[in-house]
Specification:
Bound molecules: zinc ion
CATH superfamily of the largest domain: Nucleoside Triphosphate Pyrophosphohydrolase
Strand content: 35-45%
CATH architecture of the largest domain: Alpha-Beta Complex
Number of strands: 11
CATH class of the largest domain: Alpha Beta
Radius of gyration: 19 Å
């Protein structure tokens, strides 16, 4: 950040009085611009023995496969955000959302939530951010063409847990770039 969003003056990175870390502080109006992690929320849509994946039509990771997910918006819950992203990216209707994985990625200041969900019907298709949407069984998953480590990890956990039929919430920290 270079300029104050309140008044347009330059900002400096300093530790405000009473704080313990550097913040962007406006040199003119003294507004402190806090920056905090961003939340990404998404789903693992399931139909019978298959899961739904989207091929990305946007950067980063154009052309690689992902679960539907995106930045949470103000005014919504993580579950609502996950449902919205699933609709936007895959035109898919889902139900029975259950929190499944939570990932902290402190090196890029992100937190991910994925919900397991059932597809309500098979009328899905690519939204504007997807090239293709499809259902994949475990042996059809394009493991080498997945977009992000959190996607790979969520799918690994899912297929492991499916062997026992028990899906506890899985919380993991990913501490560095793969
Ligand atoms: Zn200012």
């Amino acid at each position: 950040m270079n300029f104050c969003s309140q008044c347009g003056a330059g900002v400096a990175l300093i530790i405000p009085e009473g704080d313990n870390r550097e913040r962007h502080v406006c040199g003119d109006c003294s507004t402190i611009h806090y920056q905090n992690p961003r939340i990404i929320t998404g789903t693992l849509p399931v139909h019978e023995d298959k899961v739904l994946l989207c091929k990305r039509a946007i950067e980063p990771r154009y052309g690689l496969w992902t679960l539907p997910a995106g930045f949470m918006e103000n005014g919504e819950t993580t579950e609502q955000g996950a449902t919205r992203e699933t609709w936007e990216e895959a035109s898919a209707n889902i139900e029975n959302l259950t929190l499944y994985t939570l990932f902290n990625l402190p090196y890029i200041n992100q937190v991910y939530f994925f919900y397991r969900a059932n597809l309500s019907d098979l009328n899905f298709g690519p939204g504007t951010e997807s090239l293709e949407v499809g259902l994949f069984s475990e042996d059809e998953i394009p493991w080498e063409e997945l977009a992000f480590p959190v996607i790979t990890r969520t799918l690994q956990l899912y297929f492991d847990d499916r062997n026992t039929g028990h899906f506890p919430v899985r919380s993991e920290d990913i501490l560095r770039r793969r």
